[in-house]
Design brief:
By secondary structure, this protein is α/β, with parallel strands linked by helices. About 45% of the residues lie in helices and about 10% in strands. Helix 1 crosses helix 3 and helix 20 crosses helix 21. Converts sphingomyelin to ceramide.
Length: about 600
């Protein structure tokens, strides 16, 4: 029993989750240590270092089974009260072990736990964001030097014709999608044969997809790709990941990348003349979100996707992807470098990050070197990844440092593109020095309907003379019409809007797009338009948000949610913006802030 109490106390203490009571809790834990060691509390805490390590060895020796049994017992008891039993059992089998193993192996390890308790000397000091800023910004070009750099970089562009870039985000096909299956089954994921048939046939899964907690049948994505190849003929395709269905508790490693392969093969077939630049999302790993950034246990995923995309990659890019899970490649005639980042480096649900949050797999250091190389060569760059830095999933420590890197190379980077949220919106990187707007992040909506979305994809128009975004066209599927016409339907991927026209913008440059948050705050009709596109034109989602806007108690929080989301790009900045009381209305806030504490602190190298 004593071990159990120590473990439970350490769960809170070693992760530093308490502010005002932190020192008191540490003192309580240290009292247990001296009781365990049979000694008196010394005046100098460092004298407790050895007894602490001896005790933690015993705790770690016996705690794994005990802690795991406690968590499983509580999960088994509580989860079915709120969720589908099959979901609860799947999570129990798939994710509980992942969390427990990484927590025990790191935060309850003798050296780590005793350092966090303050009785052993820190092996590495924590790095503040100010220290990181000073380190990265020391050689930043002046404004005049940036202007001169821009002139030379534009002169280096050989092919100055405008070009198009299609973005596919969160296609999420379900290979077990079953027409007629219960689409409103009450489980977290529906539209499968195992969900049975609904009494009301209108509640069944439709042929081309369903507005429900369901992903898409592959045929709908096939049509999307075919339409892109025949009607758009893009010069480039950016594919920002997440191809697997959302039933994360059912999945198996052996076929986890099957949807990615199916989509890749379709792109090769239907759009053979376009250059593909792809990266995977948080759902491609097994289990979902689990990606080993420190060791090599996820090498299987890097190997499989690198081989799928090999025909699009140079030898160096191919080996970068296989070796590290991120890569860059230059389009020489365009004087443009495409940089693919692996956003699992900041995913708070990736428990592997407990092994070390400080620049996982050296990706930020690599990004700096890639952008410095482009700067030296007077070469532009675009960046694409899956999880946006301002999403609740993304660790703010990583997002803050990414923002600093982008500010350092703001003249080099001409576009940054994400998916993941399934919504249609923008975020903005703000300077960590003076708060000014630095760069717009374009976040594309999902191809899948999960949940209640209109299937969507996006096409950017780039200015060939300076590699900047000129505009984009947002496409959506008229799903209701497609299902009404049945399996012989000709799908209508219609233009939902043109970015500049829709928001009344003079250009897609930072100076104009960064005015959008202010305008949203002062123009209710524009805010409604933004929410409508954010909802991908889904009546279900749009009406829900409008209802909240009209509610006296929810109006302020709802407005802040959208406005603050558009003007920030880190979780901490977003929640500072919405205000102390409003942030607690967001159910995910406490969950992800707690996970952020478990991940640990950024350390000096």
């Amino acid at each position: 029993m004593r071990n159990v109490l120590v473990i439970l106390a350490l769960l809170f203490c070693v992760a530093n989750t308490i502010d005002m009571g932190e020192e008191l809790m540490k003192r309580e834990i240290l009292t247990k240590i001296v009781e365990y060691a049979g000694i008196e509390m010394p005046h100098e805490l460092h004298l407790l270092c050895l007894p602490c390590k001896l005790m933690m060895k015993q705790v770690q020796k016996f705690s794994s089974t005990i802690l795991l049994s406690i968590i499983r017992k509580e999960w088994t008891f509580l989860c079915p009260k709120f969720k589908d039993p099959a979901f609860c059992e799947g999570i129990n089998q798939t994710f509980i072990d992942q969390f427990s193993v990484h927590f025990l192996n790191n935060y309850l390890a003798p050296s780590n736990a005793c350092q966090n308790l303050g009785v052993c000397k820190l092996q590495h000091e924590r790095q503040t964001i100010k220290e990181y800023i000073n380190e990265v910004m020391q050689d930043k070009l002046s404004k005049e030097e940036q202007r001169q750099w821009q002139v030379i970089a534009e002169e280096n562009i050989q092919n100055q014709e405008d070009f198009t870039v299609a973005q596919f985000a969160d296609l999420h096909i379900d290979v077990e999608y079953s027409v007629g299956a219960n689409a409103f089954c009450g489980a977290p994921f529906c539209c499968r044969e195992e969900n049975g048939k609904p009494k009301d046939p209108s509640k069944g899964a439709q042929y081309w997809g369903t507005y429900a907690d369901c992903d898409l049948p592959f045929r709908t994505i096939q049509d999307l790709i075919k339409f892109t190849g025949e009607k758009i003929k893009p010069d480039f395709i950016i594919w920002t990941g997440d191809s697997t269905s959302h039933d994360v508790w059912h999945q198996q490693k052996w076929n986890q990348t099957l949807p990615t392969k199916m989509i890749t093969d379709e792109i090769k077939k239907q759009i053979p003349n376009s250059q593909l630049y792809a990266i995977y999302g948080n759902h491609e790993g097994y289990p979902a979100d689990q990606y080993d950034m420190i060791g090599e246990s996820t090498q299987w995923l890097r190997d499989e996707v690198a081989d799928m995309w090999k025909q699009y990659l140079t030898q160096e890019s191919y080996y970068q992807l296989r070796r590290n899970g991120y890569y860059s490649q230059v389009e020489k005639s365009r004087n443009l470098k495409f940089i693919a980042l692996n956003s699992q480096a900041c995913d708070l649900l990736n428990f592997h990050l407990m092994d070390g949050i400080t620049d996982p797999r050296g990706m930020l250091k690599w990004l700096i070197s890639e952008l410095k190389d482009s700067e030296d060569k007077h070469q532009f760059a675009v960046i694409y990844a899956h999880i946006p830095p301002g999403d609740t999933f993304c660790n703010s420590q990583w997002a803050d440092r990414f923002s600093v890197v982008i500010e350092r190379f703001e003249h080099v980077v001409t576009g940054i593109f994400y998916g993941h949220t399934h919504q249609d919106h923008v975020q903005h990187i703000r300077s960590k020095i003076d708060g000014r707007y630095v760069k717009t992040l374009f976040i594309a909506p999902s191809g899948t309907t999960f949940s209640y979305q209109n299937p969507s994809f996006r096409v950017f128009q780039f200015n060939g003379k300076n590699n900047s975004v000129k505009d984009y066209v947002q496409y959506r599927l008229d799903l209701a019409k497609a299902n009404k016409d049945g399996q012989n339907a000709i799908l209508n991927w219609e233009v939902a809007y043109n970015f500049l026209e829709y928001y009344g913008l003079e250009s897609a440059s930072l100076v104009h797009v960064s005015s959008l948050p202010y305008r949203l705050a002062h123009d209710d009709e524009l805010l409604k338009k933004y929410i409508y596109s954010y909802s991908t034109g889904s009546d279900v989602l749009y009406k829900k948000h409008l209802k909240n806007l009209k509610n006296l108690f929810l109006k302020k929080g709802t407005k802040s949610f959208f406005i603050c989301g558009a003007q920030t790009s880190t979780l901490d900045d977003w929640y500072d913006c919405v205000g102390f009381f409003e942030k607690f209305k967001e159910s995910s806030f406490l969950t992800f802030k707690l996970l952020e504490q478990f991940i640990g602190k950024w350390l000096k190298e």
